[in-house]
Amino acid sequence: MKGVILAGGEGTRLQPCTFATNKHLLPVYNKPMIFHPIETLKSFGIKDILIVTGGKYMGDFMRLLGSGNNHGVNLTYKIQDGALGIAHALLQAEDFAHGEKIVVILGDNIFEKVEVSKDTLDNDNAAIFIKEVNDAYRFGVAVFDEDGNVVEIEEKPKEPKSKFAVTGLYIYPPDVYDFIKTLEQSARGELEITDVNNHYIKNKRLIAVKVDGFWSDAGTFSSLLRASNLVSSMEERP
After folding, report:
1. How would you classify residue 225: left for phi > 0, otherwise alpha for psi between -120 and 50, otherwise beta?
2. How many domains does the chain have?
3. How high is the mean pLDDT of the chain?
4. How far is CA 125 from the centre of its chain?
5. Which residues touch 22 (CB under 8 Å, ≥6 apart)?
6. Three-class SS state of 15
7. Whole-number Cα distances in Å, 139 to 50, 62, 167, 176, 217
8. What is the pLDDT averaged over residues 24-32?
9. 237 band by pLDDT with thresholds 50, 70 and 90
10. For position 190, what pLDDT does the model report?
11. What's the CATH code of the domain at 100?
């Protein structure tokens, strides 16, 4: 499989720090944020990775990461014109994926570890990774039926029906691009990844994987600090 890191967006919640640079180049403890999703994709055995970002800071990513050789990966870069949502950013990876299943991660997501079965990787289903959190209202939230199956994803609900947030890590089969092309922009003016996930739920082609270990996004000052502290505690373990 191939991997895709979505590292666009304006980083408005991290201003003024993001006036001068892309948020994914900010440090999480002792490393630039972008290093962490690279390591997560490597844990899947992935070597070919596409980074999708806006054009303004593309040169900064390339100066930092180069070809990816120093990280043991092969990097490709693609520009997303405009902050039109996660699903729109994913659409930029269609040619890169070349008909293969892909693992997609948001560039501000920090995982301690990710484990997934071979069956999940080999079938033609999509997969989301969910984590129990106390502030689920900030995220897409998994809604379960009585048997514990995910039946819907609610986008940032005021009153979440569960504590399981949908993290920024996904696996999609090759037909994901065909569906994204049918989407219309939401009220936010974006193509929503939640619509993509609900499409696969409706068609009984989505697997939900619960994440062990810590997970944090790093898109706000408080979550960036939390992610830095979590990484610090992990790296300082004897």
Report:
1. alpha
2. 1
3. 91
4. 17
5. 7, 11, 53, 54, 56, 57, 60, 61
6. coil
7. 24, 30, 8, 21, 10
8. 94
9. low
10. 86
11. 3.90.550.10
